[in-house]
Amino acid sequence: MRFTIGRAQAWRACLALARAARRISAAASLAVLIAPATASADAKAGAVVFTHKCAECHSTRRGKIVTGPSLAGLFGRKAGSVSDFPYSAAVKASALVWNADTLDTFIAQPRKTIRGITMTSPGIADAAQRADLIAYLATLK
After folding, report:
1. In degrees rounded to 5, what are phi and psi of residue 87?
2. Taking the model in full, what pTM does it have?
3. Which of 69, 71, 97, 119 could form a disulfide with 85 if both were Cys (CB 3.0 to 4.6 A apart)?
């Protein structure tokens, strides 16, 4: 018995497989990006760091803007890409994509990482607190 399908069906099947492969690849890439910085970090401790150092200006709810943009879904997002937030020209011009490494550098010294940024935070010098915070931010979908 021979099974045949039309070209349109074959094309749709190929597109569906390609989409599925992209989703799997993106998820695997995100896991690799998050793993090194968060391996020994504590997301619960990071939530406390967020409350004390970030929550005054940033929300963890998608679409909720306080003084700064929402940090929900931050990993894998290009800096300056939340559509409802008026970013500085410096952030819009930056080529940063948020992952564990770029966040660690930025959180340590925001004004040196992106010159001309309007964010007022001096950053977090403590590497363990940064790692915990990044682990927490990774949980925000």
Report:
1. -65, 155
2. 0.72
3. 69
* CB neighbour class for 108 (10 Å; exposed up to 12, middle 13-18, buried from 19): middle
- Tell me the pLDDT tens digit for each residue of 97-136: 999 999 999 999 999 999 999 999 999 999 999 999 999 9
Is the pLDDT higher at 65 or at 16?
Answer: 65
**CATH fold for the domain made of 7-139:** Cytochrome Bc1 Complex; Chain D, domain 2 (1.10.760)
Tokens representing 27 are: 């998820």
**Structural domain boundaries in the chain:** 7-139
Tally of residues, the chain: 141
